[in-house]
Each structure stands twice: as C-alpha cells, then as structure tokens.
Design brief:
Blueprint: E1 10-12, H1 20-40, H2 52-55, E2 66-68, H3 76-80
Antiparallel strand pairs: 1-2
C-alpha cells in the first residue's frame, strides 16, 4: 500500500484528523441523558427519550465539515495521498 490514494476528492475543512473523540463524548452524554430520563420517568407511556442533536453540538466538533477538491489544482495530488 505504498502508493495508495483517496478515490473521492473530499477532505475535512480543518487540520483535525478525525472527530472520533468528539463523537465518543457526544454518545456518552446521550447515554447519560437517556439513563436520567429513564430514572425520572413515572410511566413508560409518556417517556420522551433525548436525541443526539439535543445533547451535543456538532458545531463544536474538531472539523467544520468537508470540502470537495478541484482536480485541476496542483496541490490536489498532495491531499489525495493517504
């Protein structure tokens, strides 16, 4: 795999490698909120479970989305290397 390259010309907007740790924290927060909702629930008919977007903010993650690279630029080959 010495000369492997990315087939899709889409990369992240910032220098962050991944959002793995941010997603871990968000899911831990969601599970904690679900446990609290279950403990505070009197009956399961009126139970409303929290959603991931309610307990976490995707705008505070390490990357700010993705961008598509133009294939006619000279620096594109650098970013397509793995």
């Amino acid at each position: 795999m010495a000369r492997s390259y990315r087939h899709t010309p889409i990369i992240g907007m910032t220098c962050a490698r991944s959002e793995k740790e941010d997603k871990r924290i968000a899911n831990r927060t969601l599970r904690a909120a679900c446990r609290i909702a279950l403990v505070n629930c009197q009956d399961y008919d009126g139970l409303v479970m929290p959603v991931l977007r309610e307990v976490s903010n995707v705008w505070s993650f390490a990357k700010d989305g993705k961008q598509r690279l133009r294939l006619d630029c000279p620096y594109t080959a650098k970013y397509l290397r793995k």
